[in-house]
Structures are given as C-alpha cells and as structure tokens.
Design brief:
Shape of chain A: elongated
Oligomer: heterodimer
Number of helices of chain A: 12
Distance between the termini of chain B: 19 Å
Number of strands of chain B: 8
EC number (chain B): 3.6.5.4
Radius of gyration of chain A: 22 Å
Shape of chain B: elongated
Function (chain B): Involved in targeting and insertion of nascent membrane proteins into the cytoplasmic membrane. Acts as a receptor for the complex formed by the signal recognition particle (SRP) and the ribosome-nascent chain (RNC).
Membrane topology (chain B): Peripheral membrane protein
Helix content of chain B: 40-55%
Order of helices and strands of chain B: HHHHHEHEHEHEHEHEHEEH
Subcellular location (chain B): Cell membrane; Cytoplasm
Radius of gyration of chain B: 21 Å
Bound molecules: guanosine-5'-triphosphate, magnesium ion
Catalytic activity (chain B): GTP + H2O = GDP + phosphate + H(+)
Number of helices of chain B: 12
Chain lengths: ~300, ~300
C-alpha cells in the first residue's frame, strides 16, 4: 500500500541526524515533506495539511529525542497525537431530545449513503436502546427512493411514513406529528441527496429544520471524498448548523482524509462510520483509529505505544 | 449548452465555496517563477489531480516555460492545459456497431451508475435504437425499481429478477430476451461494490464472462463510473475494476458540483482508458460526451471567470 513506507521515508529523511539531542527545524522540515505527501495522498484537504504540518513542525522542532524512540518515531508520535487531537474526542453521541420524539435529519450529497445509514442508525437504537423509531420518506425526487426506504424499513421491522411525491417540508412535519400520536420516540428523516450549491434544495432543508426542529442534523460524507469535502461540509454547516458527521463506506480502502478535513473545517464531531452495505454495518467513530488509517501505519503506531 | 459552458456554469456557482482558485493564481502571474509554479501545483492538488500528477505537470511546465519563453499568464495556462490534456487518453466514443452491443456499467456504491444508464438509454432510444436494460443489481434495496423507472422514462425494455437473484443469470436472460426481440443495445446495471471486496469483484468477473461467452461477436463496452467528488481512492478503484472486467471507458459523474474530478487525468494516463462521458445533473439529458480540452480548461479557469 501507498504509505507503508512512510516510517522508512521519515527515517531516511533523518539519516544524517545524530540519534541524540533535539530536533532542529531543518531536520523536521524534510520529514514534514513526506508527511505532507502522505496526508495529501490520503485526501486530507490541502489547506488543512498546511495548517497541520505547521503545528507539527512547531511542536517537533526542538523536541527532545526520547531514549526509547528513534527521531523518526518521535515525529510520528507527535503527528499521531496531533491528528488524534484534531479529529476530536471519541464517543460523540446522537443528541436525544428530552421531549420525544428525537428527530434525526440525514443530509448530504447525492449517493453519499443517507438512506442506508439513516436506517442503520434507526436499527441500532431499536436494538440497543429499545427505542421505537420511525423512518420518514422526505426524498421525493430520486426514482424509487421511497421504495428503497420501505425495503430497508421492512428488513429492520421499522415502519416508514410516506406521502408519495408531496412537499418534503409537509411530509417531515406530518411524519413527526404521526410519531407523536403513535408513540414513536425517534424519527429519522431521509432527505434527498443534493448539491451544497443548489440554493433551492438547500432552502428546502432549512425549511424542514425550521418546521420540525431536529435535535440532530447528521451530515453523511462518503469516505472516498477528495479535496471538495471541505466545501461540502462548510456549506451544509453554514446553511443548517450540523450536529455531527457520519462517514459512510469506510469498509473500502480509502484512507479517509475527508474525515480530518470535515472535522477541521466545521469543528463538528464525526459520530459514526458506515462499514458496509448491510444494515448492521455501523460503528461508533474512533479518532485514534482514524489517525492511524489516514497515515496508513496502524502497526507502526502500536509499536510506538508499546515503546 | 456545450460541455464547457455547462461545467463553467457549475464553477460559477462556486464563488463562495472555493476561496483559492486557479483563477486567482493565474491573475497574479507576472513571469514564470518558482513561487508561481508552486501555487499552480497547489491549485491542481485542490482539483484532486493528486500530488504526483501535479508535480509531474509542473515539472513539464517549467521546462516548456524555459524553452518556449512563455511570458504571459495566458500562454502559461494554455501550456498547462496542453500538458494535462496530453496526459489523457483520446476518446473515440462508444462502439455499439455489432449488435446486440453490450455496455456493462460498473463502479463503487452510489457513484451514479443507474442514473447514467437511464441517460444513456434515453439518448440511444432517441437515435432510434432499441435498448434493453439488464437489472443485474439484485442486491441494493429497490435497485430494480429505480432502473424500471428509468427504463420507462427512456423508452427502453428491461429484464429484472427478484431481490437476491444471481446477477449473472439476469444478464444471461437479458441477452436471450434482447436476441429474441431484436434489441440493438443491452445496458447492464450492476450493484455498487467496493473494489477491495474479492467476492464481489469475482461476481463481476463472472458477469463479464457470461457476456463474452453468449455474445462473442458483439461490440463490447465496459464503463467505469467515477464520482467527481472522489479523491485519490479513484485510482485504486480503476485498477481493481479493470482487473475484474477490462475497462473501455470512464464516465465521470456529478461534475455539476464544486468538485472537479481531476483524478481522472492520472487514471486515464495510467490505464490508457479514455473518459467517454460526464454527468452534469440528475436529469435525463444531463450526460455529455467528454472533451479533454474543455475538461482541463475547466480545471484551470481563465482570469475573471470566478
Ligand atoms: N460498502 C458500503 N456501501 C454503503 C455504505 N453506506 C451506503 N452504502 C451504499 O452506497 C450506495 C448509496 O447509498 P444510499 O443510502 O442510497 O445513499 P443516499 O445518500 O441515500 O443516496 P441519494 O438518496 O441518491 O442521495 C448504496 O449502494 C448503498 O448500499 C457503507 O457504509 N459501505
Ligand atoms: N448532481 C448529480 N447527481 C447525480 C449525477 N448522477 C447521479 N446522480 C445522483 O446520485 C445518486 C446516486 O445515483 P445512482 O444512479 O443511484 O448511483 P449508483 O451508482 O447506481 O448507486 P448504487 O447502485 O447504490 O451503487 C442519485 O441521487 C442520483 O440522482 C450527476 O451527474 N450529478
Ligand atoms: Mg437516499
Ligand atoms: Mg445503482
């Protein structure tokens, strides 16, 4: 894989370095080049990479080389710590409303994984917390979107509220009312995929939000997203004030730099990851694992932790 | 509206979202110096061309700027467009001459395969071709329902089985039906699959073999659909899909957003596969033939464009 050699590359960048004492700025600079390339290859946004390497350079320069670690390991350790810090605390949870139903609104670009992962989340709450979720079909545009939601709902034995191809704002409102009347304590709104620059459709989301006041607006981001992830996350956050991010399709081999980028620009936590097409394939997000994945050197970090 | 206009229209919408664009970089150009080249490299990375391709392009640009005494900003832009366009494979359109021709459409989850098939079917139907859609995504919830809606919109026939059926069997049946009904083109919709899943890639390979066995003399196209928002992972996608079913072309979807899809430059260069179409929306007409030159120009907008 692409960066299995990252630690070797950093080691060779430190070739001329004496193994004792402190790291100089010049020492760190050459290592930073390799790190920068690795992060870019992992699709971390260019500007985020710039800020990040600046922080790491500052911390690493002058750092004492610990007895137990080589200079390369020392730098990687700092990189890992900073990455983990940037990615935010683990265990971020869905906001549960004190007055049920808790409304969770799934939003994002076309094909990101909203419908599948919204259903997975509903299934998770049903199974683990004995909640009574309701799925609401607010995607009136995509061909067979309602059928899709019905199929996943049936598989999970969770009912689907739909009003055909009506107005999504009305449907959301009616869905929440229906939940209240029928003692459903969670509502998952499946909204249509849309571009963050599509004003009319972004307004639609704002109107849904105003109408039903969801306690959680979850932005679904495809783990394979490239440099554009920052534009998308910023636009959705500016328009709606998102509460959390769900990274879908983490079962692929993408490094997932989009996770770092979206977190860095919105400051909003990544709460869950989608790890497959099946409805049980969802997990809480672990920032430390993501850091290792982005650098593509999980084992190396385990080694450092042991040292 | 032409390809370039449509893409430019997309780019125009991006003003707020994209703060640092190549347009700005170009505007600042006075003469070729290293700072400028570095900025160009950054701009290419932001367009998802990838660090390696960007650095290669900049090296070539530096050489050319020296040899050809490039001095104006516009000349530099043209030179970079030449370099990037030159890296990409030239497209010769889809070959559907020996009938029934088969277009196999593959890619990872949610990239736009089914939608692209709907658009393609509509365009062939409009040319008077009889089109058969094979609903070989028997896995995803309501995938066949979605394709059925597209078949109706496009005026195409469809063969579908129940959920969980063997996709190769769907393909087999659709070929038989197409022969019986005298269809000109069969377009096969496959389930989205991640390229690192061996069993799913084997399933795809099996579909590919069924087509080859049943229609040895037909024209064949195998299109990989890539989402323009995808970053460097697209390279790995293209390599793995190419192993399971030899690619003849790429369709780059969702170019109507702010993502530029620059990664296809490296893929087209690396695999020698041309990009054939771009998707620029969710509507039935939002598919356009790819144009290398227009595409790279859209990656590098002119001054005052933003
Ligand atoms: N491998 C994998 N596939 C996923 C995951 N999440 C979703 N998918 C697949 O991605 C594709 C798109 O998922 P959807 O849930 O339909 O996405 P969406 O955001 O609702 O799409 P639109 O409604 O069209 O905007 C489907 O093929 C899903 O099965 C995941 O975590 N892993
Ligand atoms: N904006 C935009 N959206 C598109 C484009 N092409 C497809 N889409 C949307 O992307 C989403 C996914 O498209 P599909 O055609 O279902 O994708 P797929 O690859 O068949 O998905 P799976 O079968 O689940 O793997 C849908 O919401 C489409 O409307 C495009 O060119 N631009
Ligand atoms: Mg959906
Ligand atoms: Mg599909």
């Amino acid at each position: 894989m692409a960066f299995e050699g990252l630690s070797e590359k950093i080691t060779s960048a430190f070739k001329k370095l004496k193994s004792r004492g402190r790291l100089s700025e010049a020492d760190v600079k050459s290592a930073m080049r390799e790190i920068k390339l690795a992060l870019l290859e992992a699709d971390v946004n260019f500007k985020v990479v710039k800020d990040f390497t600046k922080t790491v350079t500052e911390r690493a320069t002058g750092a004492e080389i610990l007895e137990s670690l080589s200079p390369a390991q020392q730098v990687i350790k700092i990189v890992n710590e900073e990455l983990t810090k940037l990615m935010g605390g683990s265990n971020a949870k869905i906001n549960i409303s004190p007055n049920p139903p808790t409304v969770v609104m799934m939003v994002g670009l076309q094909g990101a994984g909203k419908t599948t992962n919204g259903a997975k989340l509903a299934g998770l709450f049903k199974k683990q917390q004995q909640k009574r979720p309701l799925l609401v079909a607010c995607d009136v545009y995509r061909p067979a979107a309602i059928d899709q939601l019905k199929v996943v709902g049936e598989k999970l034995d969770i009912p689907v509220f739909e009003m055909g191809q009506g107005d999504p704002v009305e449907i959301a409102k009616a869905g929440v009312d229906y939940a209240k009347k029928n003692a459903y304590d969670m509502v998952f709104l499946d909204t249509a995929g849309r571009l963050h620059i599509d004003e009319a459709l972004m307004d639609e989301l704002k109107n849904i939000k105003a109408e039903v006041q969801p306690s959680e607006i979850m932005l679904v981001v495809d783990a394979m997203t490239g440099q554009d992830a920052v534009n998308v996350a910023t636009a959705f956050d500016d328009a709606l004030g998102i509460d959390g991010i769900l990274m879908a399709k983490m079962d692929g081999d993408a490094r997932g730099g989009a996770a770092l980028s979206t977190k860095a620009v919105t400051g909003k936590p990544i709460k869950f990851i989608g790890t497959g097409e099946k409805l049980a394939d969802i997990e809480p997000f672990h920032p430390d694992r993501m850091a290792s994945r982005i650098l593509g050197m999980g084992d190396m970090l385990t080694l450092i932790e042991k040292a | 509206m032409g390809f370039f206009d449509k893409i430019k229209q997309g780019l125009k919408k991006t003003t707020a979202a994209v703060s640092e664009s190549l347009g700005d970089v170009m505007a600042a150009f006075v003469k070729v110096d290293e700072d400028l080249l570095e900025e160009l490299e950054e701009a290419m990375i932001l367009a998802d061309l990838g660090a390696a391709t960007a650095s290669k392009a900049v090296d070539q640009l530096r050489d050319r700027a020296k040899h050809e005494r490039i001095e104006t900003r516009e000349e530099l832009r043209t030179a970079l467009c030449d370099i990037l366009a030159g890296m990409m494979q030239e497209d010769s359109g889809l070959d559907v001459s020996s009938e029934p021709a088969v277009i196999l459409v593959i890619g990872v989850n949610g990239v736009g395969k089914t939608t692209t098939i709907g658009k393609l079917a509509a365009s062939y139907a409009a040319q008077g071709k009889r089109v058969m859609l094979a609903a070989a995504d028997t896995f995803r919830a309501a995938a066949a329902d979605q394709l059925t809606i597209w078949a109706k919109r496009a005026g195409a026939d469809i063969v579908r089985h129940g959920e969980g059926a063997d996709p190769a069997a769907v393909v087999f049946d659709s070929i038989a039906a197409a022969k019986a009904r005298g269809c000109d083109i069969i377009i096969v919709d496959t389930a989205g699959r991640l390229h690192n899943k061996a069993n799913l890639m084997n399933e795809l390979n099996k579909i590919d073999r069924v087509i080859a066995r049943e229609l040895p003399d037909s024209s064949r196209e195998t299109l990989l659909v890539l989402d323009a928002t995808t970053g460097q992972n697209a390279v790995s996608q293209a390599e793995q899909f190419n192993k399971a079913a030899k690619l003849t072309g790429i369709v780059l979807t969702k170019l109507d957003g702010t993502a530029k899809g620059g990664i296809v430059v490296a893929i087209s260069a690396g695999l020698g596969v041309p990009v054939k179409y771009v998707g620029v929306g969710e509507g039935i007409d939002d598919l356009m033939p790819f144009e290398r030159r227009a595409f790279v120009e859209a990656l590098l907008p002119v001054e005052g464009d933003e």
